[in-house]
Fold this protein.
Amino acid sequence: MADQKLFIDGEYVDAASGETFTTYEPATNTPYAEVAKASREDAERAIKAARRAFDEGPWPKMSGAERAEKLNKVADLIEANSAKFAEAEARDGGGTIKKATFADIPGGVGAFRWFARCAAEQPEQVDREPNPFPPSTNYVRYEPHGVTTGVIPWNFPFIMASWKIAPSLAAGNCAVIKPASYTSVSALMLGEIFQEADIPPGVINIVAGPGGTVGEELASSPLVDKTAFTGSTEVGRRIMQLASGTVKPTTLELGGKSANIVLDDANLDIAAAAVLFGTFFHNGQVCESGTRALVHESIYDELVDLLVERASKMVIGDPLDFASDLGPLVSRGQVETVERYVKLGRDEVGEPVCGGSRPEGLPDNLDHEAFYKPTIFTQVPNSAKIAQEEIFGPVLCVIPFSTDDEAVAIANDSIYGLAGGVQSTNIERAQGIANRMRTGTVWINDYHMITPDKPFGGYKQSGIGRELGVEGYRAYQQVKHVHTSTSTTKEEYLQFSALSGEI
Ligand code: NAD
């Protein structure tokens, strides 16, 4: 079993209390790691280390190009250790090794490389037009906020840690990150990489511990200048309240119930793949999952048949086996949530057309109570609770529609607005629909294609602000306008004419 300590001020340390907690491999329900359990005191220690590193250390004074070099080194080192990170990710969170190898670790590396590029290429200062009156030259500077904090969820621990750390450091901030308790290991392992890449002490600190103490301190501390959170909408509201005490700029990436619209002219082969991947990737434990498939009535039955046929062929099994499409859910508790919603679905719309139970025939070494079959409910009214509430499990609602306007109306009838899809062979028609969807991302003839250079985030209760893209880089910077007077005579100075009499 691995031991994992907190990473504060460039060193691995025990929690001040000496306490630890055990994380379990969801696939087997056996202990995986003993993790140092931070308290509010450790969070304060980490924030102070970041504060010192920002106020007194070299990091914010380095040029963007110098920081880029360091962050590219971080990316190189992660790549060199990718098998180790992928295994930790799969064992700790239960996602498949296939997902960890091809999505999680490259996704994290991609974020470090993209934000390194932003540091090197995005201008730190931009001239603006001179003002004729009062005569002046003007420039705008992009500066780091100072200390930033990030609280992240359990579903993509490695990518989420990278999305919070890379833009912060690239922009010259110093950071403190808190992973979710179920899945702290891969984020904490990054400490070694930062040591090897010679990132100065205190620039990045990683503390694992309870949200109610450590997370609250990170969101509320007056020593913190900006906070970012990814997780549930409920906790997001709390983060906003906590950050409001010091009016901290706050980025929130929250829940979703995204619509994947299949038009009557879609290529059904591609559409079925997009719906299945869009819903069941990582067992639907993905914020942008397209868990509402809106399907045109003329192709409804044919598409549902394809979905059922292919969903039943998905391989559920040991996440460490490359042949597995789906592993366990993150915890038995998450399975219970799914079971509760499936029962609700049975009451609301009737029997699912596939799934609706735990899989049979799994090997004895696996924890059978942690797995759940891909489940599809059909003829679901959009008003049903299973179509409105985020389940965060392998449950798809298939909803019929008859016109494009109706599809858009149903898609937008949600408190969320994170993402969505349109499946169609008519790109102009699909883009017209995409433009009317009130969400931060839309994939046409695809799904889940998040790339580090394009912004990602939500409308409505799916969040505030954007991560990734140039937008995600700028979110980690303050904007300063510097006005330099070029007045040569007393008459030209606005301040003299604004008040009567001599100053
Ligand atoms: P969660 O909200 O329960 O927890 C997220 C993090 O917040 C954890 O680290 C937790 O310890 C911490 N936390 C809990 N209470 C806190 C408090 N009072 N103060 C500060 N921190 C606190 O979410 P989860 O169950 O880990 O993840 C699932 C949720 O995350 C889903 O709703 C999903 O949609 C969302 N999510 C969103 C995105 C996105 O980019 N929009 C990405 C991934 C996950």
About this structure: The pocket of nicotinamide-adenine-dinucleotide is lined by residues 151-155, 178, 180-181, 211-212, 215-216, 219, 230-232, 235, 238-239, 253-256, 287, 390, 392, 418, 458, 463 (CB under 6 Å). The chain has 16 helices and 22 strands. The chain has a mean pLDDT of 96.
